[in-house]
Amino acid sequence: MLRWLTSLVGGERAGQVPASEKLPCFHCGDLVKRRHAIDVQFDGAARTVCCHGCAAILKTVEQMGMVQQYRAQKGQVAASNDK
Asked: Which one of 11, 16, 26, 70 is CB 3.0 to 4.6 Å from 47, fit for a cystine?
């Protein structure tokens, strides 16, 4: 009964990421706990970032109309890290 009540009031709900789980920042790749992560809209989708600095970079990239260049650069960095 207690578990059931906890799940209704504040426990982890089905389909949600536990608050203690670490997720990668969309911009810099640093791991951040779910409860400390910041969700921002970037390029039409919700992205998880680790701090307000990374959120500001994504917002600036969109405002400057440089999303395609950002994605291309990010792809080049990921490809070089795979080698």
From this structure: 26
Q: Give the mean pLDDT of 17-35.
A: 90
52 vs 37, 41, 55, 64, 75, CA distance in Å?
10, 13, 5, 18, 23
* pLDDT at position 16 over 60: yes
Please answer whether residues 47 and 56 qualify as being in contact, where contact means their C-beta atoms are separated by less than 8 angstroms.
no
The secondary structure of the chain as a DSSP string is: -HHHHHHHHTSPPTTPPPTT-EEE-TTT--EEEGGG-EEEEETTEEEEESSHHHHHHHHHHHHTT-HHHHHHHHHHHHHHHH-
CB atoms within 10 A of CB 54: 21
| 41-65 confidence digits (pLDDT tens) | 999 999 999 999 999 999 999 999 9
